[in-house]
Write the structure tokens for this entry.
Amino acid sequence: MVRSLWAGATGMLAQQTQVDTISNNISNVNTAGFKVSQNEFKSLLYQELQTKTTTANGEKKPIDSQVGLGVRSSSITTIFRQGAFLESASNTALAINGDGFFAVQRRDGSTGYTRNGNFNLAVTSTGLALTDSDGNKVLDTKGKPIELKGNYTASQVSISADGELSYPDENFQPKSLGMTIGLWQFNNPAGLEKLDGSLYLVTGASGPAQNEATAKGLQKSTIAQGYIEGSNVQLADEMVNLIVAQRAYEANSRVITTTDTMMQQANQLKQ
């Protein structure tokens, strides 16, 4: 019966992790570019109650006798399902249609990747720079920060479906600025390291970033100006998952209280 105490405890801990994961999904239901996380479980070691494979009469048994020792959380997987496109009044709001990621230069010089295209044209000492909401500069197809040096009006900058930046000439016709927003893909995006602000870092599990502009064999993504990719959290699904996790937590706690009652009754047999 002591096994049931520990099995119930592991179940409660695993379901607590599940509730933590679901609560984070729900709290980010309105976060641009957020990708939902899914908790996965695995069973712990099994203990053999009967090691012999034959009966008392020497006959072979079709199955053995084992009991499990509980459960634990094995991984929390990010689901990179496309989120809904939300219209924005900003001309620097961008949404990716496809598997690509934007790249930004972080303050420490490292490169972060994101699906959040809520960008801004920030004023610099030399002109304008395309940045995210945290001030990280967006990178072009060559991996360099996108900076417009000179006298530019932010509201007149346009971006094509392939990410090319344009600005009106003297005849008010869009003219290419020779800069294209870079998009990158990964063999295993679920292996990316998650950071705050919907940013991700490359890991060995994700594989190296593949530049859509130069890598061959990739299905290239497109960019929609004036839209932001919303969170892919399905609130109804998360609420159902929350109820299931709560009931599972209660069931595991009932296992512990039931085992405690059984042990208490066994101890009272001598009285």
Q: What stands out?
A: Helices lie at 2-27, 235-267. DSSP finds two helices and 21 strands in the chain. The mean pLDDT is 90. The chain has two domains: 2-80+234-270, 85-229.
